[in-house]
């Protein structure tokens, strides 16, 4: 097997990266690698260029110019120019890593991360080395960090704030002597959000200043090596092993007997279950790995026990197996199950082995470079695109040469050579896991009991929602009918009121006209009565004069006054007749007016009655409409309740089917 070095490479456009090519005779050539369109990967060394992929080389290691152990790094390591910084892809100072020499610790990474193409969140850094101070006395070290930070001087921790937080200052004080090398260890992790880490110091005769002002040197025992993904541990680590020996360092999101769906970094990648040999849920200890019988199919349990059965499904951490002896079984993959064994992995014809930074090992028949990715294909993976910044090493050869034998388990595997008696603490750990698994079983039994109770409650809720919905739907139908009738009655009453109101307006107008006629007739009658009294008075005056002077009048005077008396009697008679006529007209006009008034009053009473009836029917219609709207809301509410209850029951039924 080839020695694996830490690798991260980014090829885009005409970018050039450092690389090492291992020939079939074991010799190595360092140079610059770049992608050449239409040809492949080209290595340039000492002014000479050659296409190395495709080619006949043994392996190719590609390095970023700012990453691990470049020539400039080796020179700086020897000369001493800062602290050794190890950058991890996890927040617990573990996992795939990159290393470089940093002159000081003053970083505000923002949203870009410490390297090009590096993750922005969820990483950690360890700086280590030595320094000397210019004066003896107490020295104060200050940190500004987002998130956690720890600082140790001469193995004494002076700052410890290993928590998630925004940018805050921490400080620690320690007495240091001049002329002596002092060990320094700084640890930092970034969770999410901003990424800031700054370290400063002050001391006797020195104000607060950057750490780079001190004489910083990397550890004396620092070597240009990389503790990267170990291919010898491939078969034991959490992930998915395919039937051709390929290993995908990813968890399974869900699976059935047809296909498996993976999580990041192969998110949503679907692989046929027929192409999967083993799924590892927990790292398998060596002493357990050598005891496994490869031919057994089923689940490897914590502690080494094996449960035989055919794989059915995997969802939400629950593994379901089926066997003739025990029927269906559900196993917990978090505490009690180490791995799922489906078949024995075997070497198949392949020409390339691609190792990724996350530890994945992919076997391929063919690889093709693009400007930003590597496309590989095989009978198992079919076609898979890998971003170039995730690739570690590419090896070329033939099937069995490239096959990672570490994926095999059992007493004949390579793990048997490394296996030793499990130390006490490992056995204790296994026993604790077994106890934890037992507690988890009890917890699952309680959860299942609660789930059954919940199922019964959901069924009851569904039945109640259905019954209530049917009841409210019946009430709503009746309310709709009642409302329609009430609305119709109100419309009829409204029409009747409108008609009666028109009649009332007409009668009011007739009364007004007849009252005007009556007043006019009354005025005429009053005038006629005055004229009759005036003519009666004139007649009386003439008669009185006639009676008084009749004996003294001459015949001519008698004739004249007699004519006057006759005319006065005639005028009074005419005035009396006119007065009687006017009085008669007045009585008729008054009678007509009174009749119009009575008609108007009667219509007014009818109008008020009809208006009252209309308002009552409107109130009834409004009341029935509000009742109808309320029932509509209730129907909608219980429809939603029914749908929610039905969805829960359906989801439970689907889970049961799985």
What would you say about this model in short?
This protein is α+β, with helices and mostly antiparallel strands and 658 residues long. It has helices spanning 71-79, 286-289, 399-402, 415-418, 424-549, 555-657, and strands at residues 17-22, 28-36, 40-45, 48-53, 59-63, 83-88, 97-102, 106-108, 123-131, 137-146, 149-153, 156-161, 168-176, 182-190, 196-203, 206-210, 239-242, 247-248, 252-256, 259-262, 270-272, 276-280, 298-301, 306-308, 310-315, 318-323, 327-332, 337-341, 352-356, 361-364, 366-369, 373-378, 382-387, 391-396. The protein is 38% helix and 29% strand.
Essential attributes:
six-stranded antiparallel β-sheet, disordered N terminus, Toxin - Anthrax Protective Antigen, domain 1, 4 domains, eight-stranded antiparallel β-sheet, 658 residues, alpha+beta
Summarize the topology.
Elements: E1 17-22, E2 28-36, E3 40-45, E4 48-53, E5 59-63, H1 71-79, E6 83-88, E7 97-102, E8 106-108, E9 123-131, E10 137-146, E11 149-153, E12 156-161, E13 168-176, E14 182-190, E15 196-203, E16 206-210, E17 239-242, E18 247-248, E19 252-256, E20 259-262, E21 270-272, E22 276-280, H2 286-289, E23 298-301, E24 306-308, E25 310-315, E26 318-323, E27 327-332, E28 337-341, E29 352-356, E30 361-364, E31 366-369, E32 373-378, E33 382-387, E34 391-396, H3 399-402, H4 415-418, H5 424-549, H6 555-657
């Amino acid at each position: 097997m080839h020695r694996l070095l830490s690798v991260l490479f980014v090829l885009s456009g005409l970018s050039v990266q450092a690389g090492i090519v291992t020939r079939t005779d074991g010799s190595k050539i360092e140079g610059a690698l770049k992608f050449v369109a239409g040809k492949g990967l080209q290595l340039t060394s000492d002014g000479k260029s050659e296409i190395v992929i495709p080619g006949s080389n043994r392996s190719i290691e590609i390095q970023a110019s700012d990453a691990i152990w470049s020539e400039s790094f080796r020179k700086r390591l020897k000369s001493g120019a800062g602290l050794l910084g190890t950058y991890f892809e996890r927040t617990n100072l573990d996992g795939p890593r990159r290393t470089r020499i940093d002159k000081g610790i003053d970083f505000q990474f923002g949203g870009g991360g410490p390297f090009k193409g590096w993750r922005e969140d969820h990483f950690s850094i360890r700086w280590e080395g030595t320094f000397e101070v210019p004066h003896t006395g107490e020295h104060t070290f200050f940190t500004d960090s987002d998130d956690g930070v720890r600082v140790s001087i001469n193995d004494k921790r002076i700052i410890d704030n290993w928590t998630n937080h925004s940018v805050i200052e921490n400080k620690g004080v320690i007495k240091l002597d001049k002329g002596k090398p002092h060990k320094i260890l700084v640890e930092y992790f970034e969770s999410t959000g901003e990424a800031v880490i700054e370290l400063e110091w002050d001391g006797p005769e020195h104000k607060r200043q950057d750490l780079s002002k001190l004489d910083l040197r990397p550890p004396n025992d620092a070597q240009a090596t990389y503790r990267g993904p170990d291919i010898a541990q491939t078969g034991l680590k959490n992930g998915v092993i395919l039937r051709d020996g390929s290993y995908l360092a990813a968890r399974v999101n869900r699976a059935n007997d047809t296909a498996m769906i993976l999580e990041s970094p192969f998110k949503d990648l679907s692989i046929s279950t027929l192409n999967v040999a083993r799924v590892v849920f927990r790292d398998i200890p060596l002493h357990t790995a050598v005891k496994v019988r490869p031919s057994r199919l089923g689940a490897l349990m914590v502690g080494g026990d094996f449960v035989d059965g055919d794989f059915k499904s995997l969802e939400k951490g629950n593994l379901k197996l089926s066997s003739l002896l025990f029927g269906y079984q559900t196993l917990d993959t978090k505490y009690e199950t180490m791995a799922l064994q489906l078949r024995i992995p075997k070497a198949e014809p392949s020409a390339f082995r691609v190792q990724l930074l996350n530890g994945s090992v992919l076997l391929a028949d063919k690889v093709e470079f693009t400007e930003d990715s590597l496309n590989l294909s095989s009978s198992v993976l079919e076609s898979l695109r890998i971003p170039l910044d995730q690739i570690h090493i590419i090896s070329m050869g033939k099937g069995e040469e490239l096959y990672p034998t570490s994926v095999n388990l059992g007493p004949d595997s390579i793990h048997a050579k490394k296996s030793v008696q499990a130390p006490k603490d490992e056995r204790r750990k296994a026993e604790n896991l077994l106890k934890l698994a037992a507690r988890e079983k009890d917890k699952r039994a309680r959860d299942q009991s609660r789930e059954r109770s919940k199922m019964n409650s959901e069924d009851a809720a569904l039945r109640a929602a259905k019954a209530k919905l049917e009841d409210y739907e019946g009430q709503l139908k009746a309310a709709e009918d009642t409302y329609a009738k009430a609305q119709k009655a109100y419309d009829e009453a409204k029409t009747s009121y409108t008609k009666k109101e028109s009649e009332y307006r007409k009668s009011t107008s007739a009364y007004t006209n007849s009252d005007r006629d009556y007043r006019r007739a009354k005025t005429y009658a009053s005038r006629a009565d005055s004229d009759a009294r005036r003519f009666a008075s004139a007649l009386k005056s003439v008669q009185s004069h006639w009676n008084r002077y009749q004996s003294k009048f001459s015949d001519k005077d008698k004739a004249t006054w007699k004519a006057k008396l006759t005319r006065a009697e005639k005028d009074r008679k005419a005035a009396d007749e006119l007065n009687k006529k006017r009085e008669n007209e007045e009585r008729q006009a008054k009678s007509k007016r009174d009749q119009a008034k009575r008609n108007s009053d009667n219509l007014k009473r009818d109008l008020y009655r009809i208006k009252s009836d209309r308002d009552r029917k409107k109130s009834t219609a409004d009341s029935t409409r509000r009742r109808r709207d309320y029932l509509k809301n209730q129907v909608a509410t219980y429809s939603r309740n029914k749908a929610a209850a039905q969805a829960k029951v359906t989801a439970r039924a689907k889970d049961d089917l799985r």
